[in-house]
Amino acid sequence: MIASFETLKTRVEGSVLHVSIDAPPINLMGPKLVRDLVDLILEFDQNEDIHVAVFKSANPDFFISHVDVTKIAAYREEAGRLTGEASVGMLFRRLSETKVVTIAQIEGRARAIGSEFALACDMRFAARETAIFSQFESAFGLTPGAGGIQHLVRLMGRGRALEALFTAADYDADLAERYGWVNRAIPAAELEGFTTQIAQRIASFPPFATTAIKARVNAIALASEADFRIDSDLFGDAVTNPEVGRRMKLAMQRGFQTRDTELDFGVFGHLDEIEP
Amino acid sequence: MIASFETLKTRVEGSVLHVSIDAPPINLMGPKLVRDLVDLILEFDQNEDIHVAVFKSANPDFFISHVDVTKIAAYREEAGRLTGEASVGMLFRRLSETKVVTIAQIEGRARAIGSEFALACDMRFAARETAIFSQFESAFGLTPGAGGIQHLVRLMGRGRALEALFTAADYDADLAERYGWVNRAIPAAELEGFTTQIAQRIASFPPFATTAIKARVNAIALASEADFRIDSDLFGDAVTNPEVGRRMKLAMQRGFQTRDTELDFGVFGHLDEIEP
Amino acid sequence: MIASFETLKTRVEGSVLHVSIDAPPINLMGPKLVRDLVDLILEFDQNEDIHVAVFKSANPDFFISHVDVTKIAAYREEAGRLTGEASVGMLFRRLSETKVVTIAQIEGRARAIGSEFALACDMRFAARETAIFSQFESAFGLTPGAGGIQHLVRLMGRGRALEALFTAADYDADLAERYGWVNRAIPAAELEGFTTQIAQRIASFPPFATTAIKARVNAIALASEADFRIDSDLFGDAVTNPEVGRRMKLAMQRGFQTRDTELDFGVFGHLDEIEP
User: Fold this and answer.
1) Interchain CB distance below 8 Å, C15 and A276
2) Range B47-64 average pLDDT
3) How many Cβ pairs within 8 Å bridge chains A and C?
């Protein structure tokens, strides 16, 4: 029996937990969603009946849009309930260490912390026609604070990671696959069936094997707590920078955090949106 | 003059040694093949006339199928003759450090330790139409013990490595190329010519250069002896687990280690083969 | 106001500096080009108005061909003016650490140190029809000394890096993209527009963000000074080897360092050029 959440809809199928992210209108990562993710990870820790979790979005256009920039202190505070540190990066690192096998099924936009959440999962499968990835922090004068730097460099190498981090651009599913941002781009019509099949298959194998494998893989490829903390602190410090504030204000005036603006191209989708 | 082996057919061409793996009926890795590989690596160490070795299979359907699960203690014991440790992982790590440049020319199935042998070679070229790769250990409740975790994570990153290790699924040559499991998928009809050309070309360059380059590359990308030893011990410990034993017995009843079963789809080729 | 250089043509556009490498006839890396690169990096350090630099070649057939093997001591000496060490590897490592965002726009051949210069940049975009990459050092009995080993292994993994380093072969832009040698292969007709757009976009974001991101990415993916130094010393020591000298002399007799020979196939473009 799984606890109920405000922004997560869950469905149990054997030892597979299907989790649908449902924080209208655009799945912003704010205090409520962070709070629910903390509770879910605690549930993962304690519930021996959950072997695999599949994360998807209730909103076909947005997997997780990005953080709610009007509530940065509040959502970071919520994250601290799990780790003792007001840091979503440290929270996501704990997600990467959970015994549960986590699969991100990505439709729609996964920008900034939406991308970082997907990167914290064990596997990423993206809808070829609709998934969009971006780490747009540098456009504001920020650095990704929730593990994006650590994961992207290890997945795609220095050159492609610097490109993604510096350009702040949108990457579609096919390019994300070529760069290693996701495992594979899958036709949208087949995606749900594909992730469900994989989840059920893994769930049919002994949990002690997946736990042992994950520990050995993380020992190689999951960055240290110290590195996550540095990135998290850099983000936390930079949000007080006046130039960052000016750009956030400008972005809000242009429709940032509203559905239509983010749907069409994002504030940074075009090359000439932000003037120096 | 090269020593002769029971399960390896060799042919010398200049300073290129062609090695054909020939352990009928399906190139299982058992005590004889491990013994011959130990002798071959010792030959590499001592014979200054061998600069490049190309490994292929005498069996078009199986490169190396996997270990003979009925002889685990015996084949591990054989490996110890080279390194002093009863571990194929440590043996394969020594292969990765040999002065000889090693090329794996893969046709047919390379599952579990078959994949790990290929990963221990310096380069991997796969027949597009026939090569199949899998690390199926987790389906038994095991973890790959001969370096597969160490190599796959470094070659394809955390997400794709976890997918391969968790799903225990078959990967064809094209997907293996996209994931970095192999250097390239080559049309089967061109593969032998391709690897021979590369081998002859490398053999025409000074051995002191390839030796120096290999040492520098291994310093970056070959995992430590300690990491290989941990993985090897995890495998060795897990084989005594009753649930692993139950699954092995079940697999044998279903035709595991027989040609027809392994040819058609492997015991784990279908998603619903193993019940939890 | 940017200083003027003998082998580099520069053009300022906002905070983007366009740098065209112009050392006729084939953009060999000799003392003059190294001297100018030292001065350019010093300019990067001091000039707060430069945020992004795009490197391209004035010669459509050669990005940077390779080092001038007749002037090895002299060009290494020039590099020492920046770092105190007579090593182009250490110079290129400093380039990778500069606060300026660097983009390599590669048309034509980028062999040996030409490839290593591109690898030292933050991003690499290659003309699909014309760009060619090679680390041909092993054909001479040399090891790449200016960071090529460090970058290639981290970008493409052990197997593909060993292939490139051992075969000394030419890689076209598409294969270079598949291997991760470059970020992307772009149709030649679109390349200049593409890199200019990216440069202008990045230049519109706050420099303090790109500086912070670069430091964090380099902490993960830029090899240590010690590793660059080892590779540089290996190269420096090996050039005095008689067999290396013999091969260099042979190569010069065959047209090495002349336009026509290097244009058509390079001395090592064919598999049978160098006899053992």
Assistant:
1) yes
2) 97
3) 111
**In terms of C-beta density within 10 A (0-12 exposed, 13-18 middle, 19 or more buried), how is residue A233 classed?**
middle
B243 with A201: Cβ contact below 8 A? no
Amino acid identity for residue C239 in this structure: V
Mark out chain C residues that contact chain A at CB-CB < 8 A: 14-15, 101, 121-124, 151, 154-156, 177, 180, 182-183, 197-198, 200-206, 208-210, 212-214, 216-222
Average pLDDT over residues C90-111: 98
Q: Which has the closest alpha carbon to B12: B200, B245, B143? A: B200
ipTM score of the complex?
0.97
Three-state SS across chain C? CCCCCCCEEEEEECCEEEEEECCCCCCCECHHHHHHHHHHHHHHHHCCCCCEEEEEECCCCEEECCECHHHHHHHHHHHHHHHCCCCHHHHHHHHHHCCCEEEEEECCEEECHHHHHHHHCCEEEEECCCCEEECCHHHHCCCCCCCHHHHHHHHHHHHHHHHHHHHCCCEEHHHHHHHCCCCEEECHHHHHHHHHHHHHHHHCCCHHHHHHHHHHHHHHHCCCHHHHHHHHHHHHHHCCCHHHHHHHHHHHHCCCCCHHHHHHCCCCCCCCCCCC
Mean pLDDT lowest for which of A122-136, A255-269, C116-130?
A255-269
In angstroms, the separation between the Cα of residue B276 and the nearest Cα of chain A is 4
Residues of chain A found within 8 Å of residue B143, distances taken between Cβ atoms: 209, 212-213, 216
Interface test with chain A among C119, C124, C183, C184, by most A beta carbons within 10 Å: C183
DSSP-derived 3-state class of residue A22: coil
Q: What is the mean pLDDT of chain A?
A: 94
| Domains located in chain B, CATH noted | 8-189+207-264 (3.90.226.10)
Q: How far is A54 from chain C (nearest CA, A)?
A: 30
Query: Confidence band (pLDDT; 50, 70, 90) for A263?
Result: confident
